[in-house]
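hiii, so i know i said id send this last week but things got crazy w the move. better late than never?? heres the sequnce for the chain we talked about at the cafe, plus the structure i predicted for it. fair warning i was half asleep when i ran it
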Amino acid sequence: VQLQAYGGGLVQPGGFLRLSCAVSGSIFIFASMGMAWYRQGPGKERDLVASITVGGRTRYAESIKGRFTISRDGAKNTAYLQMTNLKPEDTGVYYCYGATPDADAWGQGTQVTVSS
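okay and structure toks below
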């Protein structure tokens, strides 16, 4: 299985971005895969930002609650992270992660920079 993350970029404070994570490599695997987004800020550890289960249950880090929304589209085998009201402290490399009961995988990171 392969995960490909994209959608990062440079945005001003208060702006928005949507990250996408496309899953490929095995038929039907996305349907059994919990998905998550992690973030690694400059000089910081990689931390969980948001997760979504196969059934659609979501969890969020306190720092982004009310501003970010994680979702998934089974028809497109893609998970999303909609980010609004972005702040400079949201800057970092964002990684998507997928896991089934038998295996897991990371996507490559996508850089998000929030700066005026």
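btw The first strand starts at residue 2 and ends at 6. thought thatd interest u
miss u guys!!
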